[in-house]
Write the structure tokens for this entry.
Amino acid sequence: MISAPRGTRDILPAESWQWAFIVRTASQVMDSFGFREIHLPVFEHTELFARGVGETTDIVEKEMYTFNDRGGRSITLRPEATAGVMRCAIENNLCVQGASAKLWNWGPMFRHERPQKGRYRQFYQIDAECLGIAGPMADVEIISLSLELFRRLGLKNLEVVINSVGCEKCRPVYRQKLIDYFSAHKESLCETCLDRLERNPLRILDCKKEECGKIADGAPDIFDSLCPECREHFAQVRAGLERLGFPYRLSKRLVRGLDYYTKTAYEILSGNLGAQNAVAGGGRYDNLASAIGGGKIPGVGFACGLDRVALVMEEQGCSFGEAPAVQVYCAALDEASRGDVQVLTHELRKAGISAECDTAGRSFKVQMRNAGNCRFACIIGESERENGSVAVKDMKEGSQESVAVSEAVRYIQDRV
Ligand code: AMP
């Protein structure tokens, strides 16, 4: 027996209709904010992520699914969406001469992480990116977009956490301050953080280990190191959030795992998820385009974990809308009626009514059992065939009426 690879799972009908609801809602919210959908390849040249996400990040160092294709090129299953969206914008000239682009997409991402609740090796993200705009209003739009999505999905107990991670001017100064500080606490840092000390000290700030966390709490505050431009940008983002009435918490320890972030970084946390408590994360990435050879295109965006949102919605008892149900079941009382039953089913479907009939030669009793979930059953037997009628049974009321075949579609249309 061959099973699905560790960290992957099948999304079966019992869950897939809930996913469809989330994606449908996302699509509506994106439309209402003027974001347009794109579809991107799920694999890209490895270099895109190595240069875009950053060589020293956990994702690139440890988590990518990378292989050589038959032409000997190094290919990687996308671990995140932003680098691909930026590649797409550059390649298709979407942001030339100061043009901006508001784009969204959704689909699977791949990271070789240790699977646990809410963490998979193939997981799904809904992603929105606003490219070509450097000002803080775009950051506020993105945070507002993610919160509107969660509001429409009915999620409760969410917390917005924001930080500024500075820019290429002020981050090196802060980086050095961190190296100095953490070097003095070397003996209490975990192996991973020791390894990060010289290469990526900012990542020590979001280590989940208790000991490292305690030390990180005492680390220098990035707010004291921000250059005037980053400081002003962050103040504007905060003011914008306050104008829209969004509460948030500042956290100097929020740095996120990807190198391309500049200025704003944010996460939306849910109290309902254990360790994997982020339902969405994002921020600004003004250096990503140049890192992948595309000149200067500022950007800000977010990605939300579909698997996790579905999990939280389930736990919080949120509504996923109506579960899909077929409206009419057409049943044959005898063998000779099966053809007529399929024709009626076809006519109902053409009229926009969802309908099913048995195609497996099952008994009338079994057919009627299957009709139990439908609003109506349309029954055809010998006498119906003889007088050109259908017995329409209202499955809620239990009542039954004889209707002319020619009238059956209209009769049901008036009642569903
Ligand atoms: P990131 O790209 O790491 O900022 O992640 C953005 C969002 O994607 C997170 O807030 C999670 O909701 C989701 N996510 C990230 N990694 C995983 C994973 N391995 N399994 C499930 N969801 C994930």
Summary: The pocket of adenosine monophosphate is lined by residues 80, 111, 113, 118-120, 123, 125, 256-257, 278-281, 303-305, 307-308 (CB under 6 Å).
